[in-house]
Amino acid sequence: MGAGHAHRLYRHAESPVHRLPPHCKLTAVFCFVLVVVCTPRTALWAFAAYALLLAAVAAAARVPAGFVLRRLVIEVPFVAFAFLMPFVVPGEQIRLLGFLDVSVPGLWDAWNVLAKGTLGVTASVLLAATTELRALLLGLERLKLPPLIVQIASFMIRYGDVVTDEMRRMSVARRSRGFEARGPRHWGVLAKSAGALFIRSYERGERVHLAMLSRGYAGTMPVIDQATASRAQWTAAAALPSAALAVCLLGWAL
Amino acid sequence: MSSGLGFVPSLDVRGLAYAYPDGHQALFGVDLTVERGERVALLGPNGAGKTTLVLHLNGILTAGAGTVAVAGLPVGREHLAEIRRKVGIVFQDPDDQLFMPTVREDVAFGPAAAGMRGERLERAVRTALERVGMAEFADRPPHHLSFGQRRRVAVATVLVMEPEILVLDEPSSNLDPASRRELADIVRSLDVTVLMVTHDLPYALELCPRAVVLSEGAIAADAPTGKLLADRELMRRHRLELPFGFDPAATPAPPRRPGAR
């Protein structure tokens, strides 16, 4: 599909993972994350096994490690929070590197957040890298998400750029007339610009609605593309969560 | 082709009056008949009520007085869906018109809303995109196209409905000269009734053999475009100005029905 331009999270390639129907991949990622979250945090080897599973998926999808690692940066704010835990959680203390007193339950909590968070984000990054935004929406629609939410999401994708562009033009217009936002004294101007942008977007919404009515919109989006999946495709998509489930069960048993 | 149902005009507006809810009256009894296969330019200064008139044609606004009929079918609540299929409005800003994630889905929106599915839908979409020369852009998101391309796709989104009348709102605005000419070629190649709302008088002369002037909510003139543009007194009275150096008398009048037998 999409020739040329695509979202920057997406990485165009031909691979078995790219070819899987979007709703299969969504379900697989969702189940995988659930399984990971249910794993006991003391089963360190289980997390290593999950990481290997994801690495296998990445290899199958021809997504290089560097691509995934760069996109993991989004996780940083949460990781920062995790690093605080060993210092704030009460409990048995342990001395690290000879001078750092940290709590043992805090360390476990930090590890828990860090490991499960990273695995979840990596799975999502892989999903986004192998599935176009448009296909994701079709998948969500197929998974019976309320149509109104899918419509709102698709309009966000369609008009995100238009609104950003409008915002940029307003900013250029402000600066062309010698305005630079410096300090709280100028916040009033920025707030008014935000208000104007809101009104413009609102009015555009009305015009879009008018155009939709003119073309026969009656409250529901017509189904144009029907995403379908064969049993083989479902089985292929289930490979990741099933393998993870086996690891998880072992983790509880051992 | 064009004279199959020649008795029923594509558009018949009689005594149309409308006041906005805030009391501002925009139309004071408009009478306008457009025969099947005609291309008519609707001229008029800003605020003359052109957009208000257009929004009556497919029942977005409901007439305060008077009637609108499209191919003999009165515009009203009971057959709104049918009317909206017959009247294809191309709005001025293609970003308002193209609201789906890809060009193909956008063109498919109208017919799919009317219940068309599967292979028939695909074929209709392809044909409409080919008519505006945009077939190879079917899978692109609309916001990645140039302005001229977006306007052509906007035309395709209404052509796919096989409308009785195509209403173009300022079709040449924001287009560079090449895109402007390409759009003119497309409009000329279509065998469909066209009502073109515009400020671009040379464009009106190029495409439409007949022009009407809407001024202060009523039709002030209705004549062959070349003759109308040459009437300086009339033009001045309705705030219509030709671009510098443009002489309507020196420009050959458009053939009345190119492509028609």
Strand order of the largest sheet of chain A: 1-2
Please give the radius of gyration of chain B in angstroms: 18 Å
Structural class of chain A: mainly alpha
How big a fraction of the residues of chain A is strand? Answer: under 5%
Unreliable segments of chain A (pLDDT under 50, ≥5 consecutive)? 1-5
Succession of helices and strands of chain A: HHHHHEEHHHHH
What does this structure look like?
- The complex is a heterodimer of chains A (254) and B (261).
- With 254 residues, chain A is mostly helical.
- Chain A folds into two domains: 16-140 and 227-253, no CATH class; 147-214.
- Chain A contains ten helices and two strands, in the order αααααββααααα.
- Chain A has helices at residues 16-19, 22-38, 44-60, 65-71, 76-88, 104-130, 133-142, 147-176, 187-214, 231-253, and strands spanning 93-96, 100-103.
- Chain A has a two-stranded antiparallel ribbon.
- In chain A, a hairpin with a 3-residue loop joins β1 (93-96) and β2.
- In chain A, α8 packs across α9 (187-214).
- The longest helix of chain A is centred in the middle third of the chain and has 30 residues, at 147-176.
- Chain A starts with 15 loop residues before the first helix and ends with a helix.
- Mean pLDDT of chain A is 85; it is low at 1-5.
- With 261 residues, chain B is an alpha/beta fold.
- Chain B has one domain (11-238): 3-Layer(aba) Sandwich (Rossmann fold), CATH 3.40.50.300.
- Chain B contains ten helices and ten strands.
- Chain B has a six-stranded mixed beta sheet, sandwiched between helices.
- The radius of gyration of chain B is 18 Å and the shape is globular.
- The termini of chain B are close together.
- At the A-B interface, α7, α8 and α9 of A face α2, α3 and α4 of B.
